[in-house]
Design goal:
The complex is a heterodimer of chains A (about 800) and B (about 150). With about 800 residues, chain A is of the alpha+beta class. Chain A is built from 19 helices and 32 strands. Chain B is of the alpha+beta class and about 150 residues long. The chains are: A alpha+beta (about 800), B alpha+beta (about 150).
Chain lengths: ~800, ~150
C-alpha cells in the first residue's frame, strides 16, 4: 500500500494537464487486445533460433552446419563466414566516433562485429549460428545439430584483474582489455586534499544486475525485394536509430530502406536501448529467403544475451574539514563492460564519472574511469544508466564520512547540499542542474519518517539486542541525455495535424514502453488547442509515419518530448488564431481556444468552430489570410537548451538536461538468526518538477522504487569460475514481487524546471536509484553496534548472516 | 566439477585394467545409454540426461589418452547436447587391495568442466547426479568383474 500525502508545493494544473486522467492505453492492454511483436504473424512466416556459445571464452576451431542444414524443415543456417558478403559490420552504438569527447579523452576501442561470433566467443550466450526453419520446433531441434569445436580459453571475469598487464585478452589486437579511458576533472583537487582535516578512502563495489521486462526482446523481419524495403517489427526503444543502424550496417542489398515498427512494448528499462546481433541476423535471413522471419527471445536468452547493468568498483576518496564540509572528491572507477559490444555500456559508465558529486557542492573533483572488457554479457543501459552507480557511491560515502567525523548522517548532507538559491547550478562536470530544494526534500522525508521518534525507538531496540537501522539518501537522476558524436542528439521532433474534421493527430520520434505517451500527449494538446482529450490520436514507434527521433530513454520524453509536443501545439494554435482573426476580423491577441471553438474573449457572438477553421485551411483556401499556407499540419523540432554538444575542457560537458531527485528514508530491522532484512518504513519525497499526470508519475515512481529494492536486496547476476551465468531464470534470479515490497509513504516536492515549457524534469528512473544506498546505509546503521561494514550488495540473508556472524567473532564483515 | 573416490573388487589388477581399458566393456557399464559406437581406444555414446526440469540427450566422446598397464589409465573427451558442453577427463589408478585378499582397489578421479545451459540451470543438482551415475557405473563394473571371476 502507498500513502501519498498532500503536497506542500503547487503543481501546474489546467483543464487537462496536472490531472490524473485515466490512461488511454490501458483498455487494450487490460483486455489483451494490444499488439506486441509476438503477435505479428505475416503469411509465410518462418522462425529463427540462435546457437549460442556455451563457453565464456574460447576459440572456434571448427564450425560445421551441414547436419543442421540437412534437417527437414530447415531453410537457412548461417555462421559468421556467411555475413561479410552482406554486412559491412554492425554499426557502432551509441557513439559513432572513436573520440566523441576529444579534449584529452581519445580512447574508445571498437571491434568490427558482424552479428555472429567470428573466430572467438567472448561470453556465454554470444550468438554463433542462426537457424531458420518452417517452425520454431524444427529450428530449436536443428540447434542440436550445429557442430562446433571450441578450444576453451581462460575466462576473464574480474574487471580489476582484467586491467592488469598479463591478463588474458578478449581482443588480442587491442593490447589490453581497457575499452574506454575517460578522465574528467575540475578545480584543484590536489589542494583540496592538502587542506583536508580528514580524508576518507573506500573501495566500494556495486554488483551486476539487470532489468527484467515482462516482454523479452523479439523481432519479425519481412523483406520486399521489389521495393528493396525491409520491414522490421522490433521490441525496441529506438526504432529510428535501429533503422539507421541497419541501413548503415548492410552493404548488400545496396540502398536498403528499413522501416522499423515498434508496436506495444512490454517494458524496456534500458535493455531495449541497444543494437543487437539478432536484429541484423534475422533481417539478413529475411533478405536471403524473401520471406518473413520471426525470433522471440526466451527468458534464458534474455538473461545471457540481453545487456546487463551496474557492476563497478570505485576507489573513492573524500577530503573533508572536521566540521563535515567536503573540500574535494577523487574517484578511480573500474567498470566491468562484459564483452562491451554492441550495446551502450560505454555511454552508461561515462555518466557515472560525470555525476559522482551528486547533490553536493563539490567543485574540486577528479575522476579516472576505465571501462574494461570481461567474458560476461555485454553491459548496457539499465534504468538509472550509470547515474545509479554514481549516486550509490556518494550516498554511501556521506554516511561513512559522517561516521568517521562523529556526525549524524543528515547533518553532513545538510552541510554540503546545493542550496535552492544556487540553481541553476553548474556542477563540477559542466551540467547545469535546473532546480530543486534538496534540504527541503530531505527534511520532509525525515519528518514523514517520524525520524526523531525512530531514533528513540532504535535506542530502545538496541537495548533489547535488536538490529534496527535507519538509512537515508538524496539521489539526483540527470535525465534526457544528449551526447556529441552519438545517436542521442539533443532534440525531439513532433508532427501535429488537425484534419478537416478537427481531429488532432500527433506523431513523434519517441515510442512508448509503458509510459503512457498517448495519454500525456492528449493532455498537452487538449490544453493548448482547446479540443477534447478524446480528439487526440498519437502515432509513435513507426519510422515511416513519424518524424525522425532517437527514441525513448533517459526519462527524456517528459523533458524534451513534452516540450516538443507543447511547442508544436502552440505553433499550430498560432496559425489557427491567425486564420480565426482573419475570419472574425479581429486581433489575434483577443482570441481564445476553448471547447473546440476560437472566439473573442468576453464576446460569445464572435466565435468559429475549430472544424470551420480546419475546413477553411484545407478546402476554402481562398478565405485564408494573404500569405498563409493551406493545411493545419507542421513539424516542430525542439532543441534542448540545457545541453552542450561540444565538449569543454578536462572532459566537462553538459550532457543531461533535467535533474529530478528523490530523498528517501528507510527504517529496517534485521533478524540476526536468519539475516533476513525487513523494511519497516520507506519514505520517498520525489521532485520531477510539475506533474503532468500525477497518477502516471506515481505509478512509474513506485515501480522504480521496487526495481531499486530488488537490486538492493534480491537481484544479482552470479557467474561461476568458468564464466557461466548461474541464474538464468526467475527460479534463481529473484525479482521482488508485491510480497517483498514495503508500504511506501510518498510525497512530491515541485520545483519546476526553468528550461522546459511545462517545467517537467523527467520521471520514472529516480526511484530505482536510491534504494541500494538508502538500504545499505540503513543496514550499516543497524550493524553499527557490531562494527560491521557493508561494502557490497545485495543485502541478501546469507550475506547479512555471514557479515553479522563474522562481526560477532571479531572479524570485520565487509 | 571435480569428483574422486575409490572402490574395491575381488579381481586381480590385470583383469581390472583390461576391463577399464576396454571401451566396449566400459560402455556396457554406463547408465542410460541409447546408442554407442566403439573404437579400439575410444567410444561415443548417446546418453539420456535428466536434471531437474531439463530432459534430453547428450553425445559423449571419450578417448584413452594415457595408459600404464596395470597401473593407470586416463580417458579424455567431450560431451555435447542440450545447449551444453562438458569437457571431461577421468583417470583410474590401480593398487593392490589392502585387505590382503588379492583384490584390486581403483582410485578414480574425474574433472568435468560444464559450460552452457546445464551448468546454469541445473547448478547444484549436477553434483548429486554425477555421483549417482558414477555409483551406478561402479556397481556395474564390480558386477561384471565378479561375474567374470565366477565364470
Amino acid at each position: 500500500m502507498t500513502t501519498t500525502v498532500e503536497h506542500q508545493t503547487e503543481n501546474l494544473v489546467g483543464r487537462f494537464i496536472g490531472r490524473s486522467l485515466p490512461r488511454k492505453e490501458d483498455r487494450d492492454l487490460i483486455r489483451g487486445e494490444a499488439t506486441f511483436v509476438g503477435d505479428v504473424n505475416p503469411p509465410g512466416l518462418l522462425y529463427a533460433a540462435f546457437f549460442r556459445s556455451p563457453y565464456a571464452h574460447a576459440r572456434i576451431a571448427r564450425l560445421d552446419l551441414t547436419r543442421a542444414r540437412e534437417l527437414p524443415g530447415v531453410l537457412l543456417a548461417l555462421s559468421a563466414e556467411d555475413l561479410p558478403r552482406y554486412v559491412r559490420h554492425m554499426s557502432p552504438f551509441p557513439f559513432l566516433s572513436r573520440d566523441p569527447f576529444r579534449a584529452g579523452n581519445p580512447s574508445i576501442k571498437f571491434h568490427d562485429h558482424y552479428g555472429l561470433a567470428q573466430d572467438k566467443v567472448r561470453f556465454q550466450g554470444e550468438p554463433v549460428a542462426l537457424i531458420v526453419a518452417e517452425n520454431r520446433y524444427v529450428a530449436e531441434d536443428a540447434l542440436e545439430l550445429v557442430d562446433v569445436d571450441f578450444e576453451p580459453l581462460e575466462p576473464v571475469l574480474v574487471a580489476e584483474d582484467a586491467a592488469k598487464e598479463g591478463s588474458p585478452l578478449l581482443y588480442e589486437d587491442w593490447g589490453d582489455n581497457v575499452a574506454l579511458r575517460f578522465h574528467v576533472s575540475n578545480g584543484d583537487v590536489e589542494q583540496a586534499f592538502r587542506d583536508a582535516d580528514v580524508v576518507v578512502s573506500e573501495r566500494i563495489h556495486l554488483h551486476r544486475f539487470t532489468g527484467t521486462p515482462i516482454e523479452p526482446r523479439g523481432v519479425v523481419a519481412s523483406y520486399e525485394r521489389g521495393k528493396n524495403v525491409l520491414t522490421l517489427w522490433d521490441s525496441t526503444q529506438i526504432p529510428h536509430v535501429v533503422s539507421a543502424l541497419l541501413e548503415d550496417s548492410f552493404k548488400e542489398p545496396k540502398h536498403l530502406k528499413v522501416h522499423v515498427i515498434a508496436p506495444n512494448i512490454g517494458g524496456g528499462f534500458g535493455q531495449k536501448w541497444g543494437f543487437y546481433p539478432e536484429e541484423i541476423c534475422v533481417s539478413l535471413a529475411s533478405i536471403l529467403l524473401e520471406r518473413p522471419v520471426k525470433w522471440i527471445e526466451t527468458r534464458r536468452e534474455h538473461m545471457v544475451a540481453t545487456n546487463h547493468g551496474r557492476d563497478q568498483v570505485h576507489y573513492i576518496e573524500l577530503a573533508l574539514k572536521q566540521d563535515g564540509t567536503i573540500l574535494g572528491l577523487r574517484d578511480k572507477i573500474y567498470a566491468d563492460l562484459g564483452d562491451a559490444y554492441p550495446v551502450g555500456g560505454l555511454a552508461s559508465i561515462i555518466s557515472t564519472a560525470m555525476f559522482v558529486p551528486g547533490a553536493y557542492k563539490i567543485q574540486n573533483y577528479d575522476c579516472q574511469l576505465q571501462g574494461i572488457v570481461t567474458n560476461k554479457t555485454p553491459l548496457g543501459a539499465h534504468r538509472g544508466f550509470g547515474k545509479s552507480e554514481a549516486a550509490y557511491m556518494i550516498e554511501r560515502m556521506m554516511d561513512i564520512a559522517a561516521d568517521r567525523l562523529g556526525m549524524v548522517p543528515e547533518a553532513i548532507r545538510f552541510k554540503n547540499f546545493i542550496q535552492p538559491e544556487d540553481f541553476p547550478y553548474v556542477c563540477a562536470t559542466g551540467s547545469r542542474y535546473d532546480s530543486g530544494n534538496y534540504p527541503g526534500a530531505l527534511a520532509r522525508a525525515l519528518e514523514l519518517a517520524d525520524y526523531e521518534n525512530m531514533r528513540k525507538l532504535q535506542e530502545q531496540n538496541r537495548r533489547e539486542g535488536k538490529l534496527f537501522g535507519i538509512g537515508m539518501c538524496l539521489v539526483v537522476e540527470p535525465s534526457s541525455s544528449s551526447r556529441m558524436g552519438s545517436y542521442n542528439s539533443g532534440y525531439f521532433s513532433t508532427t501535429i495535424r488537425m484534419d478537416p474534421q478537427g481531429q488532432v493527430y500527433v506523431s513523434h520520434g519517441g515510442n512508448d514502453e509503458g509510459q503512457g505517451h498517448w495519454t500525456t500527449i492528449s493532455q498537452l494538446v487538449a490544453e493548448e488547442l482547446g479540443v477534447d482529450y478524446d480528439q487526440v490520436y498519437v502515432v509513435e514507434g513507426d519510422t515511416r509515419n513519424t518524424p525522425y527521433g532517437s527514441g525513448s530513454y533517459s526519462s527524456r520524453f517528459s523533458v524534451v518530448g513534452t516540450s516538443s509536443v507543447t511547442m508544436a501545439a502552440r505553433t499550430l494554435k498560432a496559425k489557427i488564431q491567425r486564420i480565426a482573426a482573419h475570419l472574425l476580423e479581429t486581433a489575434e491577441a483577443d482570441l481564445e481556444l476553448v471547447d473546440n471553438t476560437v472566439g473573442v474573449r468576453g464576446d460569445p457572438t464572435k466565435r468559429v468552430t475549430l472544424q470551420q477553421i480546419a475546413r477553411t485551411a484545407y478546402h476554402r483556401i481562398h478565405d485564408l489570410p494573404e500569405g498563409e499556407e493551406p493545411g493545419l499540419e507542421l513539424t516542430y523540432h525542439y532543441r534542448d537548451s540545457n545541453v552542450e554538444l561540444r565538449p569543454g575542457t578536462n572532459g566537462r560537458v553538459a550532457m543531461f538536461s533535467g535533474f529530478p531527485y528523490d530523498a528517501e528514508v528507510a527504517v529496517i530491522e534485521i533478524d540476526e538468526q536468519t539475516g533476513f532484512l525487513k523494511i519497516l518504513k520507506f519514505v520517498s519525497v520525489h521532485d520531477c518538477g510539475n506533474l503532468l499526470n500525477p497518477r502516471i508519475v506515481e505509478g512509474q515512481h513506485l515501480g522504480a522504487l521496487a526495481h531499486g529494492i530488488g537490486g538492493a536486496i534480491y537481484e544479482e547476476l552470479r557467474y561461476d569460475e568458468n564464466g557461466q551465468l548461474l541464474n538464468q531464470s526467475f527460479k534463481d534470479y529473484l525479482v521482488p514481487t508485491v510480497m517483498e515490497i514495503p508500504e511506501y509513504t510518498l510525497d512530491h516536492l515541485i520545483s519546476p524546471s526553468p528550461f522546459t515549457p511545462g517545467g517537467y524534469k523527467g520521471a520514472g528512473e529516480t526511484g530505482a536509484i536510491g534504494p541500494p544506498a538508502c538500504l545499505a546505509n540503513a543496514v550499516e546503521d543497524a550493524l553499527k553496534p557490531l562494527g560491521a561494514k557493508i561494502r557490497s550488495l545485495p543485502l541478501s540473508p546469507d550475506y547479512l548472516w555471514h557479515t553479522i556472524r563474522a562481526a560477532r567473532q571479531g572479524r570485520n564483515g565487509a | 566439477m571435480k569428483l574422486s573416490g575409490s572402490f574395491t573388487v575381488s579381481s586381480s589388477r590385470d583383469r581390472v585394467y583390461a576391463f577399464l581399458t576396454n571401451p566396449r566393456k566400459v560402455v556396457d557399464a554406463l547408465p542410460d545409454i541409447q546408442s554407442s559406437e566403439v573404437e579400439e581406444d575410444a567410444f561415443t555414446v548417446e546418453a539420456r540426461v535428466g536434471v531437474g526440469p531439463m530432459r534430453g540427450t547428450m553425445r559423449v566422446h571419450l578417448k584413452m589418452v594415457v595408459q600404464e598397464p596395470n597401473e593407470h589409465a586416463t580417458y579424455r573427451g567431450q560431451s555435447k547436447g542440450m545447449g551444453t558442453t562438458v569437457d571431461l577427463e577421468t583417470t583410474f589408478a590401480l593398487r593392490d587391495a589392502e585387505n590382503g585378499g588379492g583384490g584390486t582397489s581403483v582410485d578414480w578421479s574425474g574433472d568435468a568442466r560444464i559450460v552452457g545451459r546445464l551448468a546454469s540451470v541445473a547448478g547444484g543438482m549436477l553434483d548429486p547426479l554425477a555421483r549417482k551415475n558414477i555409483q551406478t557405473f561402479v556397481n556395474a563394473v564390480q558386477g561384471s568383474l565378479e561375474q567374470e571371476e565366477r565364470s
